[in-house]
Predict the 3D structure of the following.
Amino acid sequence: MKEEPQSVRERLIRTTGQLLRSHGYYGTGLDEILKDSDAPKGSLYHYFPGGKRQLASEAVRYMAGRMAKRMVDDLSLTADPIEGLRLFLAGRANDLEASGFKSGCPIATVTLETASEHSDLCGVCSQSFDGLKQILHEHLSRAGFGQERANSLATLFLASWEGALILSRAHRNTKPLDIVAKEICAMIGGILGKGQNV
Amino acid sequence: MKEEPQSVRERLIRTTGQLLRSHGYYGTGLDEILKDSDAPKGSLYHYFPGGKRQLASEAVRYMAGRMAKRMVDDLSLTADPIEGLRLFLAGRANDLEASGFKSGCPIATVTLETASEHSDLCGVCSQSFDGLKQILHEHLSRAGFGQERANSLATLFLASWEGALILSRAHRNTKPLDIVAKEICAMIGGILGKGQNV
């Protein structure tokens, strides 16, 4: 191994994250991970004694951290909280189109594949979704919503986004994401504008 | 083969549909399909010369048809169009909980696994989602929305439901589905009640 140990480990995690986005957990083979990471064969079990499952857990955590960072960055691009939500969704639609509709949400795919198993891997997905929801919750609280409503609307926003990503990938166009962005931002903005039931 | 040919074929499709719901396309093995279908080894390629991929396409179509029927049935349980939407989501939350959070939406899982491949299988998912959206579109049109808004809100409803299913499976509770049902029905009902921008 010519590389620094840390660097091979990180490359394995990043590569696995990308493969989970495109093909999911069961659709990603160890050979593919090693090849795309340009990593020596023994390195996977060296760094991840728990094998593919441990590596996938680390990869979901890593990707969730990246998504969380992007969410925080986009939401703070403007002082208008609704415009921040719109910019975040528009950015994700652009990313999806630029990837040729390959780069979905790895948390969603791994959840759907592993939720039946009561596994640690699905637990990591649950925590990852909670992390994203917390960012949305805080954003909506700052915008003026009370704790309960901020929590509900954060859940709705996260669900709508994840669902729209599925529809956009299925149809290979960003229309579902564009439509959902327009409707959900108008709805949340409408509630805030009315100043009732916030 | 003691069974009627048609019956083995149908059993293979139904079993595959259930396995796709729980584990997805790549997480479902041919051995598991044959075992759970109680089907002779040669029967799979006999009825599905295109192998697992053809069988999975038929299974997604079959499950989408079942989901569409349930949607039509639930939406027509009451004369109140918003209450119909609420009943449909409540029914799906009950089903999910009763299955121990195993029975997700096979269209969503297969989409996320295969969207990168430009495959026929993903095309079947795209058509299946369109079929469900069309039912929602017609329901919202009958409720009083114009064509464009009915299309937008049908997309939002479908996306929110699919996303909430993911969150509920990840967390192993129906709260995300319950919250999304409450918020989305209040929002759509609110627009209809105001009679503006419908």
User: Anything to note?
Assistant: Chain A touches chain B through 51 residues (CB under 8 Å). The mean pLDDT of chain A is 94. Residues 124 and 145 of chain A are 28 Å apart (CA to CA). DSSP finds nine helices and no strands in chain A.
